[in-house]
Design brief:
Elements (H helix, E strand, L loop, with lengths): L1 H17 L4 E13 L1 H4 L12 E13 L2 E12 L4 E4 L2 E19 L6 E22 L5 E25 L2 E11 L12 E13 L3
Antiparallel strand pairs: 1-2, 1-9, 2-3, 3-5, 4-5, 5-6, 6-7, 7-8, 8-9
């Protein structure tokens, strides 16, 4: 995974240096909200219908036609959680951090520099889940302990849509789905996760 990130960073540097007409790169600053079980599962959810998560992404776009791009992408976002009582004396809090590397296709309906666009992507995902358990302390009050569980190389898909205001500025919204599996080595796991991301996308090197 680190090797993939290093290669993408090298490609971004080369494209910016060379200023190739059919290659550009971008930075996406985003916020997100968990959906489905990631939000409301009794034991594994964040228990927030909206989560002001912060995320950052990088992409390298190759123009394959006048209205189509193929992008290599790196995406990272985290979701904080709230405590949820699972019995009168025990509470869980989940926090999730996703790191994705993938490829997506983007189609522009009017122009690559102005108007609506949409696409879909396939990625591999690393997931970190921090589980904090609050229990009564023998010294009075409560105390908590946090454990981190990692999932990696999980298949994910995404669908996105956005609007390009200028060659260098656009907005994008995307829905993500990741299969997490059954045997994850962690307590009360999710089988899959979905979330919504909304962001601002800055392009560099576009003609």
């Amino acid at each position: 995974m680190k090797a993939l990130v290093q290669r993408l960073a090298l490609l971004l540097s080369c494209s910016a240096f060379l200023g190739a007409q059919d290659i550009s790169w971008g930075i996406q600053l985003s916020t997100g909200s968990p959906l489905g079980g990631l939000s409301n599962d009794q034991y594994a959810g964040t228990h927030k219908t909206f989560n002001g998560a912060g995320g950052i992404g990088l992409n390298l776009s190759y123009q394959v036609s006048g209205l189509d791009d193929i992008r290599a992408t790196v995406n990272s976002i985290g979701f904080t959680g709230e405590f949820e009582n699972i019995d009168p004396s025990t509470a869980f809090r989940n926090e999730y951090h996703y790191f994705q590397v993938g490829v997506e296709w983007c189609h522009y309906f009017n122009s690559r520099n102005h108007g609506w666009n949409a696409g879909f992507g396939i990625n591999t995902t690393e997931l970190y889940r921090d589980v904090t358990v609050m229990t009564p302390s023998p010294f009075g009050g409560t105390w908590g302990s946090t454990s981190r569980f990692q999932q990696y190389r999980k298949l994910g898909i995404s669908a996105n849509g956005g609007y390009q205001f200028k060659p260098w500025l656009g907005i994008v919204g995307s829905i993500h789905h990741v299969n997490l599996g059954d045997d994850q080595g962690e307590p009360l796991p999710l089988k899959s996760a979905q979330w919504l991301q909304l962001g601002v996308l800055f392009h560099f090197g576009r003609k």
